[in-house]
Amino acid sequence: MKIPLTVALFLIGLFVVAADAQVNRHVLRERLVIQDLARISSAQATYSATHGNGEYAATLASLYKVGFIDEALASGEKHGYLFALQTVIGSPEHPPSFSITATPRVYRRLGVRSFFLSLDGLFRGGDISGRTANAQDPVLEDDACTNGNILLNEQCIVQTLRAIGGAQATYAATHGGGNYGGLGALHSQGLIDVRTASGVLRGYRLFVFVSSGSFTEASTFTVSAIPETYGATGIRSFRIDTSQVVRGADHQGGASGPEDPPVD
Questions:
Q1: CA-to-CA distance for 210 and 196, rounded, in angstroms?
Q2: Which of 36, 52, 70, 186 is deepest in the core (most CB within 10 A)?
Q3: According to the model, what pLDDT value does residue 3 have?
Q4: CA neighbours within 13 Å on the CB side: how many for 25?
Q5: What pLDDT score was predicted for residue 12?
Q6: DSSP string covering 194-226, please?
C-alpha cells in the first residue's frame, strides 16, 4: 500500500521530534551525571580532611554515612547511570588517590557518553559504545559547564567553589601544615585541575585570599568568583571561605560579601 506524501511527511516529522527529545534527555542526564561526579570528588576531598585522616572514602556508602552525598548517589545508580568509586590507600611510595566512573546502565536508551574523573579534576570519556571510561580516554572539552548560559554558569561555578573548598581543607591538613594555599599550590598537589588553577573558567574569574595561622589566629581562606562579563556570562557573584559555606548575590559585577545568603 502506498503511503500518501502528507502522511509520510507527518511520520518523518514525528520521528525527528522523538529523536530530538531523546537527544535532549541524554544531554540533561549527562549534565546531572557530571554534576554528581563533581559532587563526589568534592566530598572525597572533604572526607580526606575530616573523617579520613588523609585517606579517601573506600565506598560511596561511606560518603553517604557522613552526609556528603545523597542516598540515591550512594546506591551507585542515578540518572540512568551506574556510578563506581575506586580508591587507593596511600603508602610511603604513593599518596592516596581515587577515581570515579559513570556508565550508562543501558547504552543509547539511557545515555550515550561514559565518564571518568580522578584527582586531576578532568572529565574523560565520551561515546565509547557503553564501556566504562578510564584514564586513557580523551579529556572532554565539554563538561556541561559552557559559557553562554548564565544559569548553567552560575550552577557550575558554585560546584567549582565547593570543590576548591574541599581542596583547601585537604591542603591544610596535609601539605599546607595547617595553612591554606593559592590555586597554583592546590594544583601542584593534584587537588584541582589545570582549568580551575587558571582562575578563569565557566564565565567567571576566581580570586583567592589566604592568611597564615599564628599562635593567636587561625589560618583562613576566601575564594571569590566574579562574572567575567556581568550580565553576559553571569549575574551573581559568589564566595566560599573557611566555613565551607558558598554565598552569593547580585553585586553588579562586584565581589560577593560574607553577609550574602547561602547558596543551595
A1: 17
A2: 186
A3: 56
A4: 14
A5: 43
A6: HHHHTTEETTEEEEEEEE---SSS--EEEEEEE
Task: Tell me the whole-structure pTM to 2 decimals.
Answer: 0.61
The whole-angstrom separation of Cα 187 and Cα 167 is: 9
Alpha helices by DSSP H, listed for the chain, are 5-50, 60-65, 71-74, 150-173, 183-188, 194-197
pLDDT digits (tens, 9 = 90+) for 143-202: 555 545 788 788 888 878 988 988 888 888 888 889 999 999 998 887 887 888 999 988
Percent of the chain's residues with pLDDT above 90 = 47
Task: Map grid coordinates 579534576 to a residue.
Answer: 121
Q: Report the DSSP beta bridge partners of residue 170.
A: none
Q: Residue 105, Cα to own-chain centre: how many angstroms?
A: 21
- Break the chain into its structural domains and give their ranges: 5-126, 150-250
φ/ψ of 102, rounded to 5, equals -135, 120
